[in-house]
Amino acid sequence: MDKNEQLIQEVRAKIEKLGLGDAEAAKAIGVTPATLNRHLSFEYVRSDSVAKYRRWLVGDELRSESLLTYDDGREEIVDDVSVDEVPTELLTGPSTKPAQPLRVIDLFAGCGGLSLGFELADSGELYKTVMAIDIEEAMVRVFNDNHPRSEFGSKIGRQADLSEFLNEAEVLAYYLDHLASVENDTQLAEELDRLEPLGLGSFIQNIQELDREFIERLTKIRDSAPYQDQYALVEKTSLSQTSVLGFHNALKLPQPGRGKPSFKVPLWGETRRECSVSYRSTLSVTNTQKRECVARAETLWRQEIDTLRGRVTGSGSGQLASAARKIQNALTLIESEAYASVKEAWCEWWGSREAIRRTLFEDEHFLGQLQRIYRSGRQVHVLLGGPPCQGFSRIGRGKIRSLREQSVHVQSDTKAGDKRNELMHQYVLFVAALEPAAFLFENVRHFQAKVKTPEGTYNATDVLAEAISNISHEGLMYEVNSEVLVASNHLVPQKRERFFMLGVRCDVAEKSEHASPSSWSLNLPTREAVPLKFALAGLPEPVSGTLREEKSRGTDTLLNVQDVHINHDGAPGEYLEWIRRLPSKEGRSKNNSLVDAHCARASRRDDSEFFEMMGPGKRWMDYRCDGNPLVEDLASLVEWLLSNHNGPELAGLTRNRIGQLKDALNGSLSLRLLLDRIRLGAGEEKHHLCAPNYLKKREGNHGDWLARMDPEVPSKTMTSHMGKDTYAYIHPSSPRTISVREAARIQTFPDWYRFGSVGLVDGFRVIGNAVPPLLSTQLALRVGIVLEMGGAFELSSTSIERVTEPPAAKAEACSAPA
Q: Where in the sequence is the domain holding 30, given as residue range(s)?
């Protein structure tokens, strides 16, 4: 028996002698109940907790100051942190464990922040992410780097465009096919391959054969003389212009080039599973259906061409004018006679693909078979996701229900709001198809704001709630509530505000002891703020490099991090324990003494000197002197001199120089004076930040574009814009911007979570888009309690039983989402 085990036995004996409950003992010792329970089960005890147990055994009081202790023995006393009572309901989950972890699907998953919080809740025994989908390769790569393949070799994360799913049948088919691979469920695979009128394996083979034929046809076209002659005339940089790339991505069309094209295949083309039963090899598609689908393809092509033409005619100068010229150059190829054969091949391929999918997935009998298979123990318990929702449209209830009866998924009207609104409805489609016991929808804080469309002004929250309400069929109903959560109130060292909507299926909600289980789950107890300095503690100076170096290497350089402890379990201590905790699931690296992605952009020398002048918490705009009476009086004096003196010089100054003085006498004068103190590089006449476009930045005009972080308060919100520029995130004590790892810590990703397989730009982007896992895990614990009460722990092995009439006390909540 080692010393720590002996210590824990002494702690257990004292607890029993005093007759203390778990919560009472944890409070007396100064740890959380969850931590105490883990230690009493002889899990690893960290050195800071060992000290607490020893002090408690000998009767010493906990010290009230906050003491950081490093691995090398160095100690640092920081500002007092209040030792408040830890709300036990925040840190504990259900009283029992499900027989098998509850299945979770993460849509628009990014690098997995939202689902990671669920996976780590309650020591990792409560939830299991079985599928995560995102459209971006970098996001999926990071997700899969941190989620090992299933024991059967299948990846959890899938790269797919969620806007492609047609209806509930296709959602169910895609999920069940994925589940068969992830869980190596051979019985499920065989059931899917015996479906009528076409087995799923045969369907996938048919789709992939169409993809192969399309690539072969496209390769022959590219090898033809007319195509090659026309392609040779095009400026190749034009084909990499954003709008031109967007045209090809929207159509799932390979970029122009020579030889065999690379192909990011659409839905089903990427699936890799052998068909277990060759039940039927083909599906009968009517000529009418085929013609209609090809006609839709031609319409889609014309719409995307019109969009490109609109970019050419748009007004602008500088980069906008250059982009318009490049688009026009690309259009000379895309609209050429030689490219007409590409269009014909694409329309035939896309139309054939669409015809097979619609024929199969719009078959009511096929949907019924999928639902039977799904409800026989393959259900999803929790659906997560945060689709981008830049625009919103309202669709009439009658239209939705009419189309639902035809098994046709509703697409938003293109004239009503932003096209990306469809993604919100795709999320609702997954809710309708998978019937999860609970769903959690996350979005930006301003999701609640009113959105203008050609058809009126709508509240996005109402649109989503209405869409959720409209999926109700066959007794499927949800009790729904929404809340804006401020991350800094919940142990996250960041002032991030996000909108969350939680729905609990009514057959689960009606068994809860809470009047509104969805509202209770979102109403997290408020905690003291965790200052930024705790997120940065223990990290060494990062690796830095030029942009060229960043592109040529990933961020996978490993650096040692010192373990940091705090002498009590207030919010900073809980945060640090979370960041430094080891992963609980097998298959993940258990070494968190090394961190990757601790890489920062190399700043310009002159900018670094300016960073050193800035005080913590100060922004660019804070160094302006707008409204200063002295500056205003000087400006008036120089104006008077210019108006009343017509000579070529005055006091040795030319009129041109006096005019320059006049232009400098405004709120940016103080910034100019600071920048003038910085030594110039060879050939420079003035500091590059003295350019008018920088000096004009002030309150309301991106005046915080350059800002130094304050270590004593939570950080500002991490955003995906960090991929382009991190000047808004200057380290509080070093003359540099923050690293990818520091951003990850601020987002509460544990140190073992890896970002090193993507470059610095993508690293910042995937982190900025994420949900803080530490916030997510608190929601996961409460959702788990609700699901336990509602009997959802047994749903992995039983069929769903819906309530057609919710109890009177909850009928209003279930029928009218809040």
A: 1-62
